[in-house]
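User: My collaborator sent over this chain with a note saying "see what the structure looks like." That's all I know about it. Can you take a look?
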Amino acid sequence: MTDQDKTENLSSEAKAVKTAVEDGGNIRAKVRKITLDALHRGMLDAQETRRVVRSVMQGASQGVSKAGGKTKHALGEALAGMDEALAKSAEAYKLAIEEAAGRLRDFSRHDLEKAVNNLHTLESMLLDTLKEVADQSAGEAREIYQSLARHTKVNATSAGATAAAAITSLEKKLGRTLREVAVAGSDVALNTTSKIAEAAAGFLAGLSDALHDKAKSLREKR
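Assistant: Without extra context I'll predict from the sequence alone. Here is the result:
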């Protein structure tokens, strides 16, 4: 498969990341924005998050072909930008779960627990996907991704730390709520987990806009 064929098979966010890495500059900020934009376009569920993470890593892997001797730095910055975006997604999920918990009869205990579990598995999903893309990459990118995977496994990610803090907060707030949900016996056949994921995407859009506005304001002051 030629390089052109590989590029044509990339998702839109992967192509954007590839271009960002090739162009250089502030790779971390560019990849963070691309990742945030991709995550809040649809439902912020585990499956879509994994897809976006894989796409971003694949795009970065292809983009380093023009990075010269800065391949490790470029991939590290791309991973850091994606990690920061995932940390924001953890914040958004926390807000969505808290909102869902305020409407007990619309949600079952299982829905809330599944949503919380998405937070629990965020960091492991990131590590698993990083290893997967590393195994699929070639040459220097493969070696660097494998090195980053080992480093990330030892050192907590921003996403993992944010998710852990969110879980601790939710467990304090929702321990009683989850028991109340069980008593309420909400067995209504609603796609409620999807509703939580949709709400999380909405919260993430707001967090993303606030982050972009802050960055823009800082640039204008310089």
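A starting point for your reply to your collaborator: Residues 3-221 form one domain.
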